[in-house]
Amino acid sequence: MILAVFSIIIIIMLKRFLIQIATLFFVATLFGLTLKQFGVSLIYSVPFGIMLQFGIYYAYVTALNAYVELRNKKLENERIKEFSLQGIEVTCPCALKKTEFVPIVLNTNNTYKCNTCQKNISVYIVPETALITETIANITLPTVIPTEEESNGNS
Q1: How far is 93 from 99, CA to CA, in rounded Å?
Q2: CA separation for the pair 12, 115 (Å, rounded)
Q3: Taking the model in full, what pTM does it have?
Q4: CA-wise closest residue to 29 among 20, 42, 41
Q5: DSSP of 43-95, one letter per residue?
Q6: Are 105 and 86 in contact (CB under 8 A)?
Q7: What would the pLDDT profile of 3-58 be if each residue is shown by its tens digit?
Protein backbone atom coordinates (compact mmCIF):
# COMPACT_ATOMS: atom_id res chain seq x y z
CA MET A 1 0.00 0.00 0.00
CA ILE A 2 2.71 2.48 1.03
CA LEU A 3 4.89 1.38 -1.88
CA ALA A 4 2.01 2.01 -4.28
CA VAL A 5 1.47 5.52 -2.90
CA PHE A 6 5.19 6.34 -3.18
CA SER A 7 5.33 5.00 -6.72
CA ILE A 8 2.35 7.17 -7.72
CA ILE A 9 4.00 10.22 -6.17
CA ILE A 10 7.26 9.49 -7.98
CA ILE A 11 5.42 9.05 -11.29
CA ILE A 12 3.62 12.39 -10.83
CA MET A 13 6.89 14.15 -9.94
CA LEU A 14 8.68 12.57 -12.92
CA LYS A 15 5.83 13.61 -15.25
CA ARG A 16 6.02 17.23 -14.04
CA PHE A 17 9.80 17.24 -14.37
CA LEU A 18 9.67 15.91 -17.94
CA ILE A 19 7.01 18.47 -18.90
CA GLN A 20 9.18 21.29 -17.52
CA ILE A 21 12.29 20.03 -19.32
CA ALA A 22 10.33 19.65 -22.59
CA THR A 23 8.98 23.20 -22.20
CA LEU A 24 12.49 24.50 -21.52
CA PHE A 25 13.89 22.88 -24.68
CA PHE A 26 10.85 23.87 -26.78
CA VAL A 27 11.19 27.55 -25.84
CA ALA A 28 14.97 27.40 -26.35
CA THR A 29 14.48 25.81 -29.78
CA LEU A 30 11.96 28.51 -30.77
CA PHE A 31 14.44 31.12 -29.58
CA GLY A 32 17.19 29.41 -31.60
CA LEU A 33 15.01 29.24 -34.74
CA THR A 34 14.20 32.92 -34.35
CA LEU A 35 17.88 33.81 -34.08
CA LYS A 36 18.65 31.55 -37.06
CA GLN A 37 16.57 33.95 -39.17
CA PHE A 38 19.20 36.57 -38.28
CA GLY A 39 22.09 34.26 -39.24
CA VAL A 40 23.00 32.86 -35.79
CA SER A 41 23.79 29.15 -35.62
CA LEU A 42 21.40 26.83 -33.72
CA ILE A 43 24.40 25.34 -31.90
CA TYR A 44 24.96 28.69 -30.16
CA SER A 45 21.43 30.04 -29.95
CA VAL A 46 19.70 27.05 -28.28
CA PRO A 47 22.15 26.88 -25.31
CA PHE A 48 21.95 30.67 -25.10
CA GLY A 49 18.15 30.38 -24.98
CA ILE A 50 18.39 27.82 -22.15
CA MET A 51 20.76 30.06 -20.18
CA LEU A 52 18.52 33.05 -20.84
CA GLN A 53 15.52 31.18 -19.42
CA PHE A 54 17.49 30.26 -16.29
CA GLY A 55 18.58 33.89 -15.94
CA ILE A 56 15.01 35.14 -16.27
CA TYR A 57 13.85 32.54 -13.73
CA TYR A 58 16.63 33.56 -11.30
CA ALA A 59 15.67 37.23 -11.65
CA TYR A 60 12.01 36.36 -11.06
CA VAL A 61 12.78 34.29 -7.94
CA THR A 62 15.09 37.00 -6.58
CA ALA A 63 12.44 39.69 -7.11
CA LEU A 64 9.77 37.49 -5.54
CA ASN A 65 11.94 36.79 -2.50
CA ALA A 66 12.65 40.51 -2.10
CA TYR A 67 8.92 41.26 -2.30
CA VAL A 68 8.10 38.56 0.26
CA GLU A 69 10.83 39.80 2.58
CA LEU A 70 9.59 43.39 2.35
CA ARG A 71 6.03 42.22 2.99
CA ASN A 72 7.17 40.23 6.05
CA LYS A 73 9.05 43.27 7.38
CA LYS A 74 5.93 45.39 6.90
CA LEU A 75 3.79 42.85 8.76
CA GLU A 76 6.40 42.62 11.53
CA ASN A 77 6.41 46.41 11.87
CA GLU A 78 2.61 46.42 12.11
CA ARG A 79 2.78 43.70 14.77
CA ILE A 80 5.34 45.69 16.75
CA LYS A 81 3.15 48.78 16.42
CA GLU A 82 0.17 46.85 17.80
CA PHE A 83 2.27 45.51 20.68
CA SER A 84 3.47 49.02 21.46
CA LEU A 85 -0.14 49.98 22.12
CA GLN A 86 -0.24 47.39 24.92
CA GLY A 87 1.91 48.70 27.73
CA ILE A 88 1.98 50.32 31.13
CA GLU A 89 3.78 53.15 32.86
CA VAL A 90 6.19 51.68 35.41
CA THR A 91 8.52 53.27 37.92
CA CYS A 92 12.10 52.02 38.10
CA PRO A 93 12.88 50.57 41.55
CA CYS A 94 16.29 52.29 41.65
CA ALA A 95 16.96 55.40 43.74
CA LEU A 96 16.05 57.73 40.85
CA LYS A 97 12.43 56.42 40.54
CA LYS A 98 12.05 57.39 36.86
CA THR A 99 8.80 56.46 35.11
CA GLU A 100 8.88 54.75 31.70
CA PHE A 101 6.34 53.26 29.29
CA VAL A 102 7.00 49.53 28.91
CA PRO A 103 5.27 47.35 26.28
CA ILE A 104 3.63 44.30 27.86
CA VAL A 105 3.26 40.90 26.18
CA LEU A 106 1.21 38.45 28.21
CA ASN A 107 2.84 35.21 27.05
CA THR A 108 6.49 36.17 27.77
CA ASN A 109 8.61 37.42 30.64
CA ASN A 110 8.41 41.19 30.51
CA THR A 111 11.74 42.90 31.08
CA TYR A 112 13.15 46.23 30.05
CA LYS A 113 16.37 48.18 30.46
CA CYS A 114 16.00 51.39 32.42
CA ASN A 115 17.16 54.38 30.39
CA THR A 116 18.41 56.15 33.52
CA CYS A 117 20.27 53.52 35.58
CA GLN A 118 20.90 51.05 32.68
CA LYS A 119 19.78 48.07 34.78
CA ASN A 120 17.57 45.24 33.54
CA ILE A 121 14.20 45.41 35.29
CA SER A 122 11.51 42.74 35.32
CA VAL A 123 7.84 43.67 35.21
CA TYR A 124 5.36 41.47 37.06
CA ILE A 125 1.70 41.63 36.18
CA VAL A 126 -0.63 40.89 39.09
CA PRO A 127 -4.17 40.10 37.97
CA GLU A 128 -7.02 41.36 40.11
CA THR A 129 -10.73 40.67 39.93
CA ALA A 130 -13.63 43.03 40.49
CA LEU A 131 -17.33 42.44 40.75
CA ILE A 132 -19.35 43.98 37.97
CA THR A 133 -22.43 45.61 39.43
CA GLU A 134 -25.54 46.90 37.77
CA THR A 135 -26.78 50.42 38.21
CA ILE A 136 -30.04 50.95 40.07
CA ALA A 137 -31.70 52.26 36.93
CA ASN A 138 -31.28 48.86 35.24
CA ILE A 139 -32.77 46.84 38.09
CA THR A 140 -36.45 45.97 37.83
CA LEU A 141 -38.23 45.27 41.07
CA PRO A 142 -40.88 42.58 41.19
CA THR A 143 -44.40 43.81 41.63
CA VAL A 144 -45.91 43.05 45.03
CA ILE A 145 -49.49 41.88 45.07
CA PRO A 146 -51.06 42.60 48.44
CA THR A 147 -52.89 39.76 50.15
CA GLU A 148 -56.47 40.14 51.38
CA GLU A 149 -55.36 40.85 54.92
CA GLU A 150 -52.98 43.61 53.84
CA SER A 151 -55.58 45.18 51.56
CA ASN A 152 -58.19 45.25 54.43
CA GLY A 153 -55.70 46.92 56.75
CA ASN A 154 -55.29 43.88 58.99
CA SER A 155 -51.70 43.05 59.54
Answers
A1: 10
A2: 60
A3: 0.48
A4: 42
A5: HHHHHHHHHHHHHHHHHHHHHHHHHHHHHHHHHHHHHHHHHHTSEEEEE-SST
A6: yes
A7: 888 899 999 999 999 999 999 999 999 999 999 999 999 899 999 999 999 999 99
